[in-house]
Amino acid sequence: MSRLITRLAAxxxxxxxxxxxxxxxxxxxxxxxxxxGQQIFRYDTFGDEQLWTQELRMQQALRSVSxxxxxxxxxxxxxxxxxxxxxxxxxxxxxxxxxxxxxAQLLKLNAVVGVIGKVEGTNNQLVTIGVxxxxxxxxxxxxxxxxxxxxxxxxxNLDLNVGAIIAxxxxxxxxxxxxxxxxxxxxxxxxxxxxxxxxxxxxxxxPVVIPPVYGLQNVGFEIFTGDGPISYWxxxxxxxxxxxxxxxxDDRIGLRIVQRPDMVTPKLPAxxxxxxxxxxxxxxxxxxxxxxxxxxxxMGKALCSTCHIPPTYTDVMNGPSPVxxxxxxxxxxxxxxxxxxxxxxxLYRTTPLRALARHPPYFHDGSAxxxxxxxxHYITALALTLSDTEKADLIExxxxx
Length: 401
What we know:
The chain has 401 residues and is α+β, with helices and mostly antiparallel strands. Among the domains are: 163 residues, no CATH class; 79 residues, Cytochrome c-like domain (Cytochrome Bc1 Complex, Chain D, domain 2, Orthogonal Bundle). The strands form six sheets. The chain has a two-stranded parallel ribbon. Strands 2-3 form a two-stranded antiparallel sheet. Strands 4-6 form a two-stranded antiparallel ribbon. A hairpin with a 4-residue loop joins strand 8 and strand 9. It is globular, with a radius of gyration of 22 Å. The chain starts with a helix and ends with a helix.
C-alpha cells in the first residue's frame, strides 16, 4: 500500500509539473492579470518584491518550505488554480505535502493566495517573491482540505501568522517581536519600508487583529483609528507595509515616501471599487427569537446603537463633514490607548458590525475572545445592568448581523 501511495504521489507531482508547464506556454486557468480591482486585489504586488525579495530575501527561506509548513502558518491554496488530478491526490492524501518542490509548483500555478513567486529553471528555483492584498484579506473555504479550497475575498485570514513568516527571513536578526504577534494579527505601526530599508516607527510592537474588508459600502473610514478613508489605508499598507513601489505621505505621523514610478496610487480607485463590491457573508445559525429580543436591547437598554448606528452600525460618518470622521477617545469605551497614540488621530472609530460571529477575536487588539467577552466589557465600561438572559439575547442579535 505504501508503494502505491508513493507512486500516486509521484504521478500527481508529474501532473502538477506538466500542468504548470502548459500554463506557462499560454494555457493558464485564470485570465492574465490586468488592472481591474479584483486582479489588483488578488495578484498585484505593486512591485513589493523590492522588500520581500531584495531586502528580506524571503525567496531563500521559502525554497525549503513544504506545503505542510506553509499551511501550518496560515497560507492558503486556491483550489480553482489546481488541475483535477492534483485536487484528487490531495483529497486522497496521496500528495507529498512535505516536499518543497510541490510548493514551487504551487507558486508556479499562482495558487498560493496572496503570494506571487517567480520560479525558474528545470530545478524549479524560486527567484523572487512578492505579496498582494489577498495575503491578509482573503482565505479559502477549506472545501478540499484545511487551507485548500475556493477563495473568499475580503475575509480576514485569521490563521495567518505573518510574524512567523517574516521571522523566516535570513536578514531579520531580532525575530522576537515578529514571533510575538501570533495568528491573525499584524502590527502596521512597528516598521515601514521606504524603498531602501526598513525603518522603525514605534516600539515595542503592538499587533492588531487583521480586519475583514467586506461590507465596506457607505462605511467611509475602515481603519481602527480613522486616520483617513479606505484608500488612505490601502496606500499606507501598499507602500509602507507591503513594500510597494509608490508614494505615501502623512505629515501627522512624520512619514513621507516618494518612489518613481508610483505603482500604487493609480490603482487605488479600482482597488477600492472592488473592495466596496464585497458583500458581508450571511450569518451562521442563531436563535431568531432571542435575536429579536436582543435587537430591542441593542437599540435601547444596552446603549449599543448610541454609536453603532444602523445600517452600517458605526457613527464614523457623522463627523462635521464627509471628510472628517467622528472618532472617540479610548477612555470613552475602556480601550487601551497606546496603539491609538501611534496613529494620526490618537482616537478610535466605532467598529462597523458585520458578520461578527465569523471573525473572533474582537476589538483592535483581540482582547475580547468571544462576543460574550465583548458584552461583558461594555457592561463594565458603561456601567450597564443586564441579566444573564439579556446578555444571551444581545449576543444572539450580534451573531445575526
